[in-house]
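Work Package 3 (structural annotation) set out to generate three-dimensional models for the target panel prioritized at the project kickoff. During this period the team completed the workflow that converts sequence records into discrete structure tokens, so that structures can be stored uniformly alongside our sequence database. As a representative example, we reproduce one entry of 463 residues exactly as it appears in the project archive.
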Amino acid sequence: MLSNGIKYWCLAILLGGSILFGGTLLANPESLARQSIDELAKQEEEKQQKAAEKAAAKLYNQARENYQRINYWQASVDLILILDFYPGYSRLEDVVFLLATCLYDMEMYDGANRMYRYLLRSVTKNGLVAESILGLQKVAYQKGEFQQSLKFYKALESHYTQHDGIYESRYYAEQTYFNMQRYNLVQNLLPHIKKKSRFYPFALYTSGLAHLKKKNVREAVADLSKIPRLSSGNPERRAILASAHLTLAYVYFELSDYEEAVKELAGILPDFHDYPEVLLTRAWALLKLEDYQGALVALNELCDKFEDYYNIEEAFFLRAQCYLKLGYYDFAVSEFSRVIQSSGNGGSTDLVESTRVVLREQEERLVTLQVDLLALETKLVTTIPLGGAGRVSQFVEEPDFLDRTRGQMIHDILQEREEFNRVSASILKLKKRAEKREMRKKWEAYAEYGKVRAMFLRETASQ
């Protein structure tokens, strides 16, 4: 027999109502059940969001590590995966910016341009706005769109002069003005680039070149001479330091100050990309100083280590001159004959024309590669999701999933870019070869005279 209180309780449950118990209003049990389900769903959603945030953060950190290792391709794949599957990631703006930087460093300028422009429209971090404008300035510069590049630079000067990237922006503006042959503006920018900035040595070098263009030799030497005093800790700085030494050596050579030229060349290490030119210039300067033994040391190193140097005939000729001055007439005759033979073989009309034919073919190949690259990059850019819904659950369920299609596209672009660079280098080499073959007749004429003179001196000495 149920008591009246229990009956009342059961009736209330059946009717789906609420009751007072001990002065407290008790909720509808069905409502309590719904509330519990909602709370469980919310907890599950928060759990998934935390898992997604953690997975995205892991990918982002992985991408940053790959970027630091200069593995831009793998970094890009990881970043695009975040955009694909984790659109709610708290650092999504940083992801887009790093992706833009990767694309820029891989010379995919159209893709980088799209990323930077997207950030300008949607970014909330003030610093990334300035970084994006700087990115657009650099992209425009690399594409040869100099007026557009200057517009972005002026925007930074107007609103973000306190931003860390302002010195880099001014350096690229300086480069832009140099390419536009507005040399006065190059010098105007140099004082506004902080001396401790990593861009200062490069800006100083450009300023020196601008002075040379204006035939202001004293000012050029002053700018270029400052560069060796700066730190040369990384490869880029070592390269610009070596370039400054070589340029100063050229200037001193033209001023007939051969001792200073030799001193400048002594500061260049053998790992410099233009080291054969360093050895040849050193040999010329030492020859002018009548230090024939020193000149031979430089020339022997050049001829032994850089047999494929495009200007090797000039080195042979100088070596013959040194032997002649030292009275080694047999060696001189041999070297002069070597120049004559090389010039005769390399300067024939048939070989010159065949070089021109190959050059035309390579230039046509380069145009085709440019079109292919543009098509591939456009296809890649249209597949990168910006502001999309994403597919979080699919990636959480398959943590090792890789978007092979897009990854393959990036891989194809890099391979095409490598081929493009290879063909470009080949064209440059062919142009140098064609130019040299046109000049070889000059060395042949000099060598013919030198050989006759060496033979005469040899006969005279033997009498």
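The longest strand covers residues 19-21.
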